[in-house]
Design a protein that fits this description.
alpha+beta, MetI-like fold, two-stranded antiparallel sheet, transmembrane helix, membrane, Amino acid ABC transporter permease, AA_ABC_transptr_permease_3TM
């Protein structure tokens, strides 16, 4: 007996569960077969070109210099150290960019809702301008039109005789560790723990008695007084090295190279435009009745926004905000256009050209970006879960 499909009754074709399993097994076999074919083809091509596969090249000496490195580096160091420097430089751009973009984006998002005509229009023009200009073009503009057009070190623009801006970058004082650094760190940890315990006690006290407690000012006093006492008892935690002009350049202190400044500023300005719209829509999603209720309790506009509107809006803001953080981190690879030594420029550029280990280099680069992206997602998802509404 046959059914309307032509298959015998009781055939596996009539059982959707068996049919689904068969299709999945066939798909997995095809994917594995295709992957093995590509891998075998890559191995054969590498053998014909005399390229040894594997990650042993990471132990070889790099033999090239790096413009900016957060850890000690010489040309005799290995590709392993180059990899670490590339990761740190990528993280530096990502962290600085996320912080600046968040602050600027939230400010612009609130400004877009301002009843002041001028503030509202300025924020609107900013958003519509910078989010419609490609980030690579903005990087090139900041680098070539702004920073490289600055005067040289001898004519650098100085501030307080400690900060100097020139075509070589931003020179600033450097903190050198002193004997009092260890006790100072311990004091900071103690102050943080004390502040957390104080905040929990104050919250519990308020829930039981209804009496408010100035948690912010008390916590601020703890965070200032405890480390200050440690510095007085054990000495300053750091000594400051002031940059000074010697010959044709500055010596001493820290320097932020113009490539780093151009990348951070351009990505921050670009991403802030999108964050501003996310913040505006998040605030708009909160019922206007919340604002009216807060005003009826005597709260002014500022406290209402900080304590009532923003906390509720964050539940809407966080998911798309996570996407913007990920986009900013991935857009940091555009820094290769101006020679900033991040992962793509260092590893997928210089290291790949020197070693010829294309599959290994690309696999490492993609793994690093994947790990950073997953880490950002996990942190933001944890925060989003914490602020989510708990239904009873």
């Amino acid at each position: 007996m046959q059914n309307h499909t032509g298959a015998p009754k009781g055939s596996w074709l009539t059982d959707p569960r068996i049919r689904a399993w068969v299709f999945q097994v066939v798909t997995v076999v095809v994917v594995i077969g295709l992957g093995w074919y590509l891998f075998h083809n890559m191995q054969v091509n590498q053998q014909h070109r005399g390229i040894t596969s594997g990650f042993g090249f990471l132990n070889n000496s790099a033999g090239f210099g790096i413009a900016q490195h957060l850890i000690d580096y010489t040309e005799a160091d290995t590709y392993w150290r180059v990899l670490v420097i590339g990761i740190l430089n990528t993280l530096l751009v990502s962290v600085l960019g996320i912080i600046l973009a968040t602050v600027l984006g939230f400010t612009l998002g609130v400004a877009r809702l301002s009843k002041n005509w001028l503030i509202n229009k300025v924020a609107t023009v900013y958003i519509e301008t910078f989010r419609n200009i490609p980030p690579l073009l903005q990087i090139l503009f900041w680098y070539f039109a702004i920073f490289l057009s600055l005067p040289g070190p001898r004519q650098a623009h100085g501030m307080l005789d400690m900060f100097f801006v020139s075509s070589r970058g931003l020179n600033m004082p450097a903190a050198l560790l002193a004997p009092g650094f260890g006790p100072f760190v311990v004091a900071v940890v103690v102050a943080i723990v004390a502040t957390v315990l104080m905040a929990r006690w104050a919250t519990k006290r308020f829930e039981q008695t209804g009496q408010p407690f100035h948690k912010f000012w008390t916590g601020l006093a703890i965070m200032i007084v405890v480390p200050a006492l440690a510095a007085l008892l054990f000495g300053a935690p750091v000594h400051w090295e002031i940059p000074a002009i010697r010959g044709f350049n500055f010596v001493g202190g820290w320097v932020l190279i113009p490539e780093l400044l151009a990348v951070v500023l351009s990505l921050s300005v670009y991403t802030a435009a999108f964050i501003a719209e996310i913040v505006r829509s998040g605030i708009g999603s909160v019922s206007h009745g919340q604002t009216e209720a807060a005003h009826s309790l005597g709260l002014r506009n500022g406290p209402t926004l900080r304590k009532v509107i923003i906390p509720q809006a964050m539940r809407v803001i966080v998911p798309p905000l996570t996407s913007q953080y990920l986009n900013l981190m991935k857009n940091s690879s555009l820094a290769a256009a101006v020679g900033y030594p991040e992962m793509v420029s260092l590893f997928s550029g210089t290291v790949l050209n020197q070693t010829g280990q294309a599959p290994e280099v690309m696999a490492i680069t993609m793994t690093v970006y994947l790990a950073i992206s997953v880490s950002i997602s996990l942190l933001m998802n944890a925060y989003n879960k914490r602020i989510a509404l708990i239904e009873r």
